[in-house]
Amino acid sequence: MLYPCRRKHVNTHSIDAHDVINRNTKIRPLPEASHLTKFSISNLAHSVIKADYADWTPRKKYSFLRRMEELAMTMIYTTMFFPCSCELRLRQGKSHAYADFTQTSYSGRTGQGLAILRLTERYGGGYVGRFDKVVQCDVSGGTSPRTGPSRSPDFVFDTGNNTWVIAEAKGAFVKPGGKPNFKRPLREALQQVRCGIQRIKGRKCEGCAIGSWIREIKDKTHEGTVLLEVDYPPHGLPSSGGSGKPPHGGEKGDEAVEPPAYAVRGANYASWLRAMQLFGPAERLLGRHAEEEDHSLYLVNLKGRDLIFRYIHPDFERGFRAVGFVMRRRRWWCVIPVIGMFKDTFDVVRTAIQKRSPDLLSELRPREMGAMEYEFRGGWIGGSVFPDDTFFGAVWVHPLRELPAEPFHIRL
Fold first, then answer.
1. Is the pLDDT of residue 148 over 70?
2. DSSP characters over 182-243
3. 302-312 burial by CB neighbour count: b if 16+ within 10 A, else e?
């Protein structure tokens, strides 16, 4: 099995919101794990890219592409996570090497990715939009003036069952023997979720705060790598106990809005089109003006389904084969990271763009999330498939053979 497709898990603990908000209660020792969140490394990389491009802005176009290339190489060469453990663990010394001050933001981005994986596993939807972009009706990446610092949550998650989940993610890499504070970031996350729920009207909304703390492989602390989830209470947050004051409310100047039903799905597919470097179609999907352009992609049939994809690394598009190499079955293989979408879903998105009818996205139904490994003549393709039919992975092919994929040219 290709390493990016190997299964990992994280112990998931459900924490009561009252215990998090009340300053006089403790949540350690943690209750027994209520669930094992299972995924592959490619699923995790896929969800991190979804989180990254949900917050895409035009001025960060090339930095986002570079971050995606780095993430793909990290996934393929297993430079961050220990490959031989079933539990998600960092390699020795990586809690310091990938700390946020190194400017990679891997700990926070990994926390957002794990939150999306947990929400996808729990609710089954897979459609994710950045909260600020959805409520401002500006999911294209523009900015709106604010009267103060943002306390908005990270995501709006469309479950596919007429329910939106407002979610805030926290994440950290823990140094060996460390005892991180769980309550403070979870309390802040719940307050951000509260602000988010107050700002959306006309939709059935639930809330969830998710925090993940990832440890190194040789860290013998009994807690291990943990994922803590706190559901927002249906009747709101209780008072904070010790101070007697209620938690922080909404921000001054933030008015309630009623986004259209397709807003989250539109943001979801627009962000993935940008990840596929289809910037014009992404703008048009969101109702903004952009000229039609010719795009060159690739098409391959995998077990009866057509996958449309693009190479992530620009050098491969220019004819260079040495993007990366791995040894498998006593042979060297050229590794090409790819990103794409299955054609039947891509056709629905293309129709929504051409007819300027983003409400057509509501006809899509989520599928199951999984890790795919498929052998074709001359190599393998493996990676992650999300319920929204997006794909992220890599192709393993002999350096002297051509990839058995057909060119796919569209004007969109």
1. no
2. -HHHHHHHHHHHHHHHHHB-SSEEEEEEEEEEEEBTT---TT-SEEEEEEPPTT-----SSS
3. eeeeebbbbbb
What angle separates helix 106-123 from helix 41-54, to the nearest 10 degrees?
100
Pairing of strands 379-385, 390-397: antiparallel
pLDDT in tens, 358-399: 999 988 988 888 888 887 766 778 889 999 999 998 887 776
Q: Are 360 and 269 in contact (CB under 8 A)?
A: no
Number of alpha helices (DSSP H) and beta strands (DSSP E) in the chain = 11, 15
Do 387 and 161 touch, CB atoms closer than 8 A?
A: no
- Give me Rg for the CA atoms of the chain: 21
CA dist 54 → 144, 203, 275 (Å)? 16, 21, 10
The number of angstroms, rounded, from the C-alpha of 61 to the middle of its chain's C-alpha atoms is: 18
Report the chain's terminal Cα–Cα distance, integer Å: 37
Helix axes of 61-77 and 41-54: crossing angle, nearest 10 degrees: 170
Q: pLDDT tens for residues 102-144? A: 445 788 889 999 999 999 999 887 799 999 888 865 433 444 4
Tokens, residue 103 = 């400017």
Count of Cβ atoms closer than 10 Å to residue 156 Cβ: 28
DSSP state of 406: E
DSSP assignment of 287-301: T------EEEEEEEE
At residue 58, the pLDDT reads 73
Q: pTM higher than 0.70 for the full model?
A: yes
Strand 155-158 versus strand 163-174 pairing type? antiparallel
Structural contact between residues 49 and 128, judged by C-beta atoms closer than 8 angstroms: no
- DSSP states of 56-100 as a string? --GGGHHHHHHHHHHHHHHHHHTSSB-TT-SB--BPTTHHHHT-G
What one-character-per-residue DSSP string does 41-59 give? HHHHHHHHHHHHHHT--GG
Query: What residue ranges in 288-361 does DSSP mark as E strands?
Result: 294-302, 305-311, 325-328, 331-342
387 vs 341: CA distance, rounded Å? 11
